[in-house]
Design brief:
Layout lengths: L1 H19 L16 E9 L3 E8 L7 E7 L2 E8 L5 E6 L5 E4 L9 H7 L1 E12 L2 E20 L2 E14 L2 E12 L4 E3 L2 E5 L5 E5 L2 E5 L24 H7 L2
Antiparallel strand pairs: 1-2, 1-14, 2-3, 3-4, 4-5, 5-6, 6-7, 7-8, 8-9, 9-10, 10-11, 10-12, 12-13
Amino acid sequence: MIGRICKQIVNVTIAGLAMSMPAAAQTADRFPVPEGCTAFLTVQSRSCLVSHHWRCETDPEGSHWRVTLDQDGPFYLNYTDSEFRWLQAFNLRTGSRDVLIEPEEDPASMAELLETGNDTMVFSIREERAEGIFQRDYTGFDRLTGDQITIDGRPLLVTEFAYQWETTAGPRLTEGTQFVSREMGLFFGGLETVTTPGGETFEGNYSPVEFHEAGDPDFLTTQPEYDCGDMMSGLPADLIWRASQ
């Protein structure tokens, strides 16, 4: 069932990409959520990103989908469970697909993070792309800092995190801060840095700025609003993982 929904969602997301591209006399600017699914949140974030969250009738309780758009339209789709384990993800521009290899050695757990203030993780991802099938082995942690901030009226707990995966040239590290909402049961991006095996670094700010629910004028908008410009294209893959949660 999840496989069928995946295919349907990817097809609808591609349609959403077409809708969001500039065209004469085209005014449609709302992202089309798949049939049998209900959207519950739109998030405008820094770095010219907007994302939409929805749940589907046939999916397990607590799981949800999120699509992320930049100024060129939808580019990333992922599916997580109630613990925020990265079950599946799709790069909508390259056609690649990431799938969590289960069972994990140490699964990610939002419940453990919120209860104890710390969560470690050891897991692997199977990446399916045109060149073949590859495995990425991750280790990392999420930790509450003890700070809380309010963004657009929503109380968010501040976290610090780090994770890495081994490449043939050495480890690739992603670290920084994020936000987690007890109320919504969601993670949101923050200030993040990727360090490549060669020592090159990429920095980004993917913090949420606005939250919109059904009935709000900007709910399901296809237009990101913050920090947009040519320099925002081409996010590193590691940052997409976290920014797209």
